[in-house]
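Before our next group meeting I need something from you. Please put the record directly below this note.
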Amino acid sequence: MKRLLQPGSLPVVLVCFLALSGCTTEQYRKSADKEAYGIIREKTPVVKNMDEHFTVEETEVL
């Protein structure tokens, strides 16, 4: 019977699979932003004097 994979190739295949299947930074950021904006939208009516058009902006301030 012919083997599909060589004995030492399983770790290489697993590393490649994990590297390609993970979320990118951009996908993670968009998901986090979507969740944060949902929470802000939900809580805005409860907070007095909060701007209805509040946004979360990335800043360069350290």
Notes: Residues 23-48 form one domain. The radius of gyration is 22 Å. Residues 23 and 43 are 28 Å apart (CA to CA).
